[in-house]
Amino acid sequence: MQEPSPFGPFIEKLWHRGKALLGVEYPILGGAMSWLSESGLVSAISNAGGFGVLAGGNMELDLLKEEVEKTYRLTNKPFGLNLITIAPNFKDHLDYALKTRFPFIILAGGLPPREAITRIKEAGSKLFCFAPTVGIARRLITMGTDGLIIEGHEAGGHIGSVSTSVLAEQILPHTKQVPVFVAGGIGSGLLAAHYLMLGASGIQLGTLFAVAEECRAHKNFKQALIKAASKDAVPTAQFDPRLPVIPVRALLNEGSRDFNTLQLGLIAQLERETITPREAAVKLEEFWLGGLKKAAIDGDVVRGSVMVGQSVGLVKKVQPVKDIIAGLLSEAESELNRLLAIACESRG
Ligand SMILES: Cc1cc2nc3c(=O)[nH]c(=O)nc-3n(C[C@H](O)[C@H](O)[C@H](O)COP(=O)(O)O)c2cc1C
């Protein structure tokens, strides 16, 4: 008779804190993606045992309420709400989330204001924040976050400058206070297994879920992802330090060139003092939001912004969320079993 695989008990030991904090079968987060992470995709991820996250940050308040209620109707499993602290509607979003006692809030958009953290903690919601550097990770822990998401340069969308692997080395072995989830560049269960072994309590993926059957992305968007190589997903350049550009990783296309033209125009306006840096930053963010909609919803992958991570090179086909999660688990299982076999062999 075949020996039972040690994978089950092994992975349970590795990710038990992530499971307990989120209340899910698999601490695999479907990272919020503006325009894409709505009730359909979020509920599919949570129903498959993962943790879906609603991308609320850029929604009008009424749509946000509608989407939260719709997700509650589609799943009775836990899911999160991603809010962007620098978005114009942030205060209204947070008021709504706290008034309705939303249980899991993920704050994006830089170091969150202390007041927002205090209110979330007082309301009894679980708080998750993004750490793009080791210094920010430490500050967020001190400020009281319940979970950290370390997101590296390889990720899709707005990105930091440090790679996921370096953040993992710097943060995972030394962070015992809160569970840490790793995001950015994860395209298979192989890498996921290694981040878990380094101390992660779970993982977060965006790009892989963008091609899920349940994701509302236009078919042109999904096909662009299937065709793209990792090298095609590049970050934007910043031409002038006076213009506060948060780098965005997306497929290089006409839209990337439009962004460069916009930047040069805004720099000229800054020089003439006809715009403030803050107004210029808002224009850049509007560009990305509009560009992502153009590509992801309208299907214009030439002029729109096809935001993806480098993991796009591992995206092979459109498939249901449950198959994506099953694939990740099976790859993680093969990798952990391979290492366990080597360990057993070397013990003799
Ligand atoms: C199209 C797209 C849109 C995104 N929008 C958001 C967002 O609104 N809020 C956020 O916190 N992260 C956003 N992200 C980041 C993801 O939540 C996730 O952390 C990232 O995609 C992980 O890297 P990966 O794409 O390599 O898996 C976005 C990513 C993509 C690809």
Overview of the molecule:
The longest helix is centred in the last third of the chain and has 27 residues, at 321-347. Helix content is 48%, strand content 14%. The model has no long low-confidence stretch (mean pLDDT 95). α6 (134-143) links the parallel β5 and β6. α2 runs parallel beside α3, α8 (189-198) packs across α13 (321-347) and α11 (254-272) runs antiparallel to α12. The two termini are 22 Å apart. The protein has an eight-stranded parallel barrel with strand order 1-2-3-4-5-6-8-9, surrounded by eight helices. It has a three-stranded antiparallel sheet with strand order 7-11-10, with no helix packed on it. It is an alpha/beta fold and 348 residues long. It binds flavin mononucleotide. Flavin mononucleotide (FMN) is lined by residues 31-34, 55, 57, 82, 108, 151, 154-157, 183-186, 204-207, 210, 292, 307-309, 311.
Name its key features:
binds flavin mononucleotide, globular, three-stranded antiparallel β-sheet, eight-stranded parallel barrel, alpha/beta, 48% helix, TIM Barrel, single chain, 348 residues
Residue windows where pLDDT falls under 50 for at least 5 positions: none
Shape field: globular
What's the number of extended β-strand segments? 11
Helices, by number, come to: 13
